[in-house]
């Protein structure tokens, strides 16, 4: 996007939100439950970004995603801190690529705690790849007409002389 004098940028106060200052291992440990917990806000944000094609129009949806993420981790901290820390520590220390496969036992303990305390079941494998219809309250943006440029170069007329290619066809394998 080219920035000119005509582009209205949001104020810094509109963009300032509390950040989610968590490590990679912690975000990976909570990722499946977080995705399920904040599914509606994430879908709303992604739909806004896809439809509007301008991130400035989706600031409030982005703030909702961040707020939901913070709320989720606060609830996990209150209900299952020991189990979550054990699982995140396992992910962090067991492999260089933060693999889940070495931590299935601690994952099971964490999943049971989240299910019992937050009533949030771990989504099955492939859940986030399934197609869903998202119902939104936001009005659909108007469809922009295709740009027509009056000074476009006209095409060659049909009766124009068409000389053969100077060094032969580049599709030499098709002319046998």
What would your notes on this structure say?
It comes from Papilio xuthus. It is found in: Mitochondrion inner membrane. Residues 138-148 have a biased composition (Basic and acidic residues). Keywords: Disulfide bond, Electron transport, Membrane, Mitochondrion, Mitochondrion inner membrane, Repeat, Respiratory chain, Transport, Ubiquinone. There is one protein chain. The chain has 176 residues and is mainly α. Helices cover 47% and strands 0% of the residues. It has a domain at 22-122. The chain contains five helices and no strands. α2 (24-37) packs across α4 (59-94). The radius of gyration is 26 Å and the shape is elongated. It starts with 11 loop residues before the first helix and ends in a 58-residue tail after the last helix. The relative contact order is 0.12.
